[in-house]
Write a structure and sequence with these properties.
By secondary structure, chain A is an alpha/beta fold. The first copy, chain A, contains 17 helices and 31 strands. Chain A folds into four domains: 2-113 and 247-318, FAD/NAD(P)-binding domain (3-Layer(bba) Sandwich), CATH 3.50.50.60; 129-244, FAD/NAD(P)-binding domain; 331-450, 3-Layer(bba) Sandwich (FAD/NAD(P)-binding domain); 456-560, 3-Layer(aba) Sandwich (Oxidized Rhodanese, domain 1).
Chain lengths: 561, 561
């Protein structure tokens, strides 16, 4: 058998190596347009940021080691320019000699990845405007930083790569500004969680524009550039990183007549097989049915790409026996001192797909509060109100965020429920967790909501509610004095049983505390005395750091009414 | 309704608080023999070790705050001395006044915990011999350390508390020796993993005796003590910590005629109800059906105790609706720079219960190797050879061990399989994981074993095999020269295809490399050339640090034959 794999990074390299392990006698050819194979593309921003100091560490294998260890023929600087499915041949262009030739195949694997979006904005092709997609891009950016005096950089696009580049440029002492056309950064988060992320970024001296796109890049006489934004604002910068997004690199597949999805990805079935049974595809170039939303999406993630490679190789060699079950989009990004992560679908995506859900916000500590080094985290989960199936989780914190998102990921992948979150048996000793893990706490609170032991209201509605409804801050007078939601009155939890007569029975009572626990206890006391009560999800702390940021000073003056 | 809860730590306090949240009008009395309620008993060793400096941090609630917030009547320094189930009454002894009185109940909850084992060894009741069970014990130990010149301490028993005490005493600069009667430390581990733990402890200057019990404690004239071990060895010490183990504190339950299990725990059903329908029990005092082994065991863990409390309260107030599904014994302990954790059943326990299983050992990095701070971990999993159901996992490493054991815990709890490990979608960015997470890698290797893509041999058998079989070290000549398994010959992986004629076809070939990957690749090449091959699980590195430690110098001399 003769296998050709087009694309020699993540998915392609995994597929090729696994094919060899399963079939020692096969002829395997791997085609790579670039100079490098099997490199650590997720490490590129950190190499630019000098966090990874040794460039050699980015390379896992090279063409020679692939040959030596796997007996795989790797052709670098070679571009596949056409697939001829009926003849089972590929036309290749040697980029060194500029000569074309053809190779036949029994089975072909497409792992051509994705290409960065470069919108037709004036100046976008000028010097010192970069995308970060491969080693070559990275070397260019690194050289410019080292050789020119880059004092200010502009990152266009607040997704993963943009945020990682922003952090790494800041780490190098370069003043950085992030431009995002959408209303928020980090589209995998809900608006409220994205506001927390934005605050963290701004607290580290980075200027962030949201709701504001790039409209022009002009070269200045001194070598700097002027950036013009869609709202008319202008500022000077020395370098521009474009991280607006990527699209599946579907050029070859389209020309070969393979079925392409609505989002531009090559359509594959669960065996990674395209619409042509001799052609498989893996990685960023495909799109795949989303396990939660009834739609197919590209999956721009290295983890799924590597897993698809293994599955694809098994199916190619042994027939279609191993299935890929989709990606639940488990993602994570380090943002200065914070870790921001998510799995499954956020509330915005669920609403777009008309999927009924409840969200719940909880604050927890990374580990036992009495043990040194414990840090807070905020968790927002979304779940089906009837079945309790967990639909997604978002977390922002410091220590242990990566752990909890991985645990939530297993529950989302396996379509498990709030009951499972409650039962989760964490490894507990004081340095690592609490007797009730943050995952358990998220489960307990959601269970109280499902069982109607507690009813909640959401932070985005707090201001509207405060204008019309009876709002009680059940924290201590000291906490109340230091700041509260406009129009709230203060009845401390431990005094609540003595002040029941002051609370109207004919309207819904809205309570809140700092994080949600005392508000819950207050709601239990009031409900059992015949009141209709709602508790603020995430408490004052979450509200203050998200929607509370937009409350003007005049509104705040109402606080002590 | 009137509820009495006996025992006011973890399980008891959780139950009481939840009952109040569900029933504002109930009369709730909580009985506590000690002076303190709802304290952080898992933090006690760390308070002794000055890691937790503020004693107040150990206390979550006190009797007054329970009254104020939950309207719960807490009677401290009060001992329940008899339950009268037919009359639904409890006789209580006020330890201050030494007066007895009775309280009636509608429902009773037993949360009396466990008591430390103190075997009848000469000198065991002498001064400066302590157990660590409550705040009082802790204060005593702390006072002795502060006021007397404790230069040397002896910890009897190498379980959790023993190891945590050993670490904390060492942290204070006290020379420490650990005595364990069993053949290994940390019974939740298999022997090989326990050998790795022992090496880490010894590397930190602690003397460890295994297979050697305490036989006598003698007081010396200078205030020190002489410890005599079962093998006759004697040494001097200043303080003894007994952490031999605990037993369910079943005195009240037994006297009340409640059904007691074979291990001495109060038997409860999945609703936490004892054999008397008006009496429930939670925490260390119960024993419960083990989800993997067909037997019931006590569960001496704070996490399950807290969860049982919540379940118990729901069932007591609302009728038996919420189930406890058992504990998979997910546990973790910090040992100097290492973290040691496990979930499910280890191989020894599975063998004891005649449960068929395969074990597999893998080495992984906590996160991408090219990103700073990546540390190694070794993972041993056990799984059902037919169904692939994961039965247990043990991990030793530094960073990210707590994360992986929690992920494994969800899979063990939900009776999931090796396929699920392979599909696990981790949150991947270079600071947090690799494109293939350690959990995935464990799954991939186990899947290769299940699919017979690779056959393995276990490290405990390596020496016997080396004496009789054809053993190939497929590492580089440099690695081979630096040390190998006796009688191994060296054929480097990348040269293997050129040396096939030197390998006998009439016998099974045993290969190994450093961690297992190159051995796997070698086995794939050989198998496809018609050889019968086994690869060493965990590779040379695991063998060298476990069973290899026992190979004498004379045997090592055979290395270069």
């Amino acid at each position: 058998m003769k296998y050709i794999i087009i694309g020699a990074v993540a998915g392609g390299a995994s597929t090729a190596a696994r094919i060899r392990r399963l079939d020692e006698t096969a002829e395997i050819i791997m085609i790579e347009k670039g100079e490098y194979v099997s490199y650590a593309n997720c490490g590129l921003p950190y190499y630019i940021g000098d966090v990874i100091k040794d460039r050699n560490k980015l390379f896992i294998q090279d063409a020679a080691s692939f040959k030596r260890r796997f007996n795989i023929d790797v052709k670098v600087r070679t571009e596949a320019i056409e697939i001829h499915p009926s003849e089972k041949k590929v036309t290749l262009l040697d980029l060194y000699t500029q000569k074309t030739y053809t190779e036949s195949y029994d089975k072909l694997v497409l792992s051509t990845g994705a290409v960065p979006i470069k919108p037709p904005i004036p100046g976008i092709h000028s010097a010192n405007v970069f995308t970060i997609r491969d080693v070559h891009d990275t070397d260019l950016v690194k050289a410019v930083i080292q050789n020119q005096k880059v004092k200010h950089a502009t990152v266009v696009g607040g997704g993963f790569i943009g945020i990682e580049m922003m952090e790494n440029l800041t780490h190098l002492g370069i003043k950085t500004r992030v431009i995002e056309r959408a209303p928020q950064l980090l589209a995998f988060l809900d608006e409220d969680m994205a506001l927390l992320a934005k605050s963290e970024i701004e607290a580290n001296g980075v200027v962030v524009d949201v709701n504001n796109g790039l409209s022009e890049i002009r070269d200045n006489a001194d070598g700097s550039k002027t950036i013009k934004l869609e709202n008319g604002d202008e500022f000077q910068t020395d370098m521009v990183i474009l991280s607006i997004g990527v699209l599946p690199n579907n050029f070859l597949a389209k020309a070969a007549g393979l079925e392409i999805g609505q989002k531009g990805g090559v359509l594959v079935d669960e065996y990674m097989q395209t619409s042509n049974s001799d052609i498989y595809a893996v990685g960023d170039v495909i799109e795949f049915h989303h396990p939660i939303c009834n739609a197919s999406y590209p999956i721009y993630l290295a983890g799924p790409a590597n897993k698809q490679g293994r599955i694809c190789a098994n199916n190619i060699v042994n027939g279609n026996t191993k299935k890929f079950n989709g990606s639940v989009s488990t993602t994570i990004v380090k943002v200065f001192g914070k870790t921001i992560a998510a799995t499954g679908s956020n509330s915005r995506l669920l609403k777009n797909h008309n999927i009924k859900h409840i969200t719940s916000i909880t604050h927890s500590s990374s580990n036992a509060g009495y043990y040194p080094g414990s840090t807070p985290m905020v968790i927002k989960i979304a779940f089906d109100p009837e079945s309790g199936v967990l639909l997604g989780a978002q977390i922002i914190g410091e220590e242990g965020v990566d752990k909890r998102v991985d645990v939530f990921s297993t529950y989302v992948q396996n379509k498990q429920t709030i009951d499972d979150l409650m039962e989760f048996e964490q490894a507990y000793a004081p340095p690592f967790s609490s007797a009730k893990d943050p995952v358990n706490m998220a489960g307990f609170v959601a269970n109280n909501i499902m069982d109607k032991v507690m009813q909640i209201y959401n932070p985005e509605d707090a201001i509207e509610i405060s204008k019309k409804e009876f709002l009680i801050d059940v924290r201590t007078p000291e906490e109340f004095e230091a700041g509260t939601i406009p129009n709230a009155r203060n009845i401390e939890l431990d005094e609540l049983r003595n002040h029941l007569t002051e609370i109207p029975k004919d309207k819904t009572i809205y309570v809140f505390c700092e994080v949600g626990l005392r508000g819950y206890l207050a709601s239990r006391i009031l409900v059992q005395h015949g009141f209709e009560v709602r508790n603020l999800s995430g408490g004052y702390r979450f509200w203050k750091n998200t929607y509370g940021l937009t409350v003007g000073e005049s509104e705040k003056a109402f606080t002590y009414n």
